[in-house]
Specification:
The protein has 10 helices and 12 strands. The chain has about 375 residues and is an alpha/beta fold. The chain folds into 3 domains: about 100 residues, Rossmann fold (3-Layer(aba) Sandwich), CATH 3.40.50.2300; about 70 residues; about 150 residues, Heat Shock Protein 90, CATH 3.30.565. The strands form 3 sheets. It has a 5-stranded parallel β-sheet, with helices on both faces. Helix 6 packs parallel to helix 9. It binds adenosine-5'-triphosphate and magnesium ion (MG). The site of magnesium ion (MG) has 5 residues, from helix 8.
C-alpha cells in the first residue's frame, strides 16, 4: 500500500453545522477533508486539485447543488469527479433524475446516517486509491522503459565508439602505405595501376572521415557538459578563417554578428558551429559568390542563434530526415558527406537543454536555428528537429 497516499474529499455546504456534522462522521477515515462554504469556493478548490469525491449540499443560497454540479462537469479537471448529493428530502422524482443527469453518482438523505455516509465515501476513496496506484505504476514503468532505452543507446554508442577507435589504426596504415606506394613505386606502374592506387587512397580517406564523424557523434553524447561563457562570434570567425584557407579561390561573404556570447560547453559548441558552418560552406559550393551569416535573434524574448546561407537549400517536405544519423537530402554525387554532422549538432544542442530546427528552399539557401536553454526550448517553432 502507498503510505504517502491520502484521498482528498471536498465537502460543500453553506451551513457550518452541516460541514461540521459530515466532518465528524468522515474523520475516522483518515483522509484529507477540504471544506467549502459556497459553490464558488468549491470550484476554486476543484480547479487546483483532484478530488476522490465531492459531497454536495443541494440547497445552497448563491448557487444550488445542481447548478454547481453542471459547472463541475464542464471543467476538464473535474469532469469525472464523483459527486454525492446531500438533500433533506427527495422533493420529486424529477429532481432526482436531474441530479443523475448532471453526473451525481449517489444521493444521501439528511439527517445523515453516519454508517451509510462512511461506507459510501469509502467506496470512492478505494477507487481513488486504486487509480492512484495504477497511475504511479505506469509512471514507474515508463521511467524504467526510458532508462532501458537510454542504456541501449549508450551501449550502442560505446560499441560504435570502440569499433571506430580500433578501425583508425589499420586504416592509417592503408593510407600511409598507399601514399608510400605512389611516391616510391608510382613510376613503375602504368596509368591503370596508378588510377587503382589513387582510388584506394580516396576510399581510405572517405572511410577515415566517416570514422571521425562517428567518433564525434558518440563524443557529443558521452562527454560531460561544462558550462562557461563562450564567445560564439569568435569561434565563428576562426572557423571562417579555416574554411577560407582550405579553399582560398572561393568567393564567400561572411557576415558574423559581433559579440554573441552564450553559456555552454566551449568545445561542444565549437563542434556544433563547425558542423553548421561547414554545411553552409559546402552547400554554397556551387555558387560563384556566396553569403553565409551567423547571428542572434529572439523568440518571445529568448535568444535564438542561427546560421544562414544562400546555397543549394533543401526540400522542406523531407526536413524530418535532417537530424537523423546518415540522413541526407542531397546525392553524394552533388555534395560529399556522411550525414552525421547534423545528428551530432542536435545531440550537442539537446545536451544544453536547447532545440534546433532548419528551414530551407530548394535553390534558395537554408537557415538553421538553435536555442541553448530549457526555457527557450519550450517556445513553439517549426516542426523538424527540436
Ligand atoms: N546548409 C545546408 N543547405 C542545404 N542542405 C543542407 C544544409 N545543411 C544540411 N543540409 C542537408 O542535410 C543533410 C544532413 O546534413 P549533415 O550535416 O548531417 O550531413 P552531411 O553534410 O551530408 O555530411 P557530414 O556528416 O559530413 O556533415 C545533408 O546531407 C543535406 O542534404
Ligand atoms: Mg554536414
Amino acid at each position: 500500500m502507498d503510505r504517502e497516499y491520502s484521498a482528498k474529499i471536498l465537502l460543500v455546504d453553506d451551513q457550518p453545522e452541516g460541514l461540521l456534522a459530515i466532518e465528524t462522521v468522515l474523520e475516522g477515515l483518515g483522509q484529507n477533508l477540504v471544506k467549502a462554504r459556497s459553490g464558488k469556493e468549491a470550484l476554486w478548490h476543484l480547479l487546483r486539485e483532484e478530488y476522490a469525491v465531492v459531497l454536495l449540499d443541494v440547497q445552497m443560497p448563491d448557487m444550488d447543488g445542481f447548478e454547481l454540479a453542471a459547472l463541475i462537469r464542464e471543467r476538464d479537471k473535474s469532469r469525472r469527479t464523483p459527486i454525492i448529493f446531500m438533500t433533506a428530502a427527495y422533493k420529486s422524482e424529477d429532481q432526482v433524475f436531474r441530479g443523475y443527469e448532471l453526473g451525481a453518482v449517489d444521493y444521501i438523505l439528511k439527517p445523515i446516517v453516519p454508517e451509510i455516509l462512511r461506507s459510501k465515501v469509502s467506496v470512492f476513496v478505494d477507487l481513488d486509491r486504486q487509480t492512484h496506484t495504477i497511475r504511479r505504476q505506469s509512471e514507474l514503468l515508463r521511467e524504467a522503459e526510458r532508462r532501458q532505452h537510454e542504456k541501449q543507446i549508450e551501449d550502442a554508442l560505446a560499441f560504435s565508439h570502440a569499433v571506430s577507435h580500433d578501425l583508425r589504426a589499420p586504416l592509417r596504415h592503408i593510407e600511409s602505405f598507399s601514399g608510400i606506394l605512389v611516391q616510391t613505386y608510382g613510376d613503375k606502374l602504368d596509368d591503370r595501376g596508378r588510377d587503382y592506387l589513387q582510388r584506394l587512397a580516396g576510399a581510405a580517406k572517405k572511410m577515415m572521415r566517416l570514422i571521425e564523424a562517428m567518433l564525434q557523434l558518440s563524443e557529443a553524447t558521452r562527454v560531460e557538459v561544462h558550462r562557461e561563457i563562450v564567445d560564439l562570434s569568435r569561434i565563428a570567425a576562426s572557423l571562417e578563417a579555416e574554411f577560407r584557407q582550405s579553399e582560398p579561390q572561393r568567393q564567400v561573404d561572411f557576415i558574423i554578428q559581433d559579440g554573441i556570447t552564450a553559456a555552454g560547453d566551449s568545445h561542444l559548441l565549437r563542434v556544433a558551429l563547425a558542423n553548421l558552418l561547414c554545411n553552409a560552406w559546402k552547400y554554397t559550393g556551387k555558387r560563384a559568390r556566396a553569403r553565409i551569416e551567423f547571428g542572434k535573434t529572439d523568440l518571445d524574448g529568448l535568444p535564438v542563434y542561427f546560421v544562414r546561407d544562400d546555397g543549394a537549400g533543401f526540400d522542406m517536405s523531407h526536413a524530418n530526415k535532417l537530424f537523423l544519423p546518415f540522413g541526407r537530402l542531397h546525392a553524394r554525387s552533388d555534395f560529399e558527406g556522411t550525414g552525421i554532422g547534423l545528428a551530432t549538432v542536435q545531440r550537442i544542442i539537446h545536451r544544453h537543454g536547447g532545440r534546433i530546427w532548419g528551414e530551407g528552399r530548394v535553390g534558395q539557401g537554408a537557415t538553421f536555428f538553435f536555442t541553448l536553454s530549457h526555457r527557450a526550448a519550450a517556445v513553439g517553432s517549426p516542426g523538424n528537429g527540436a
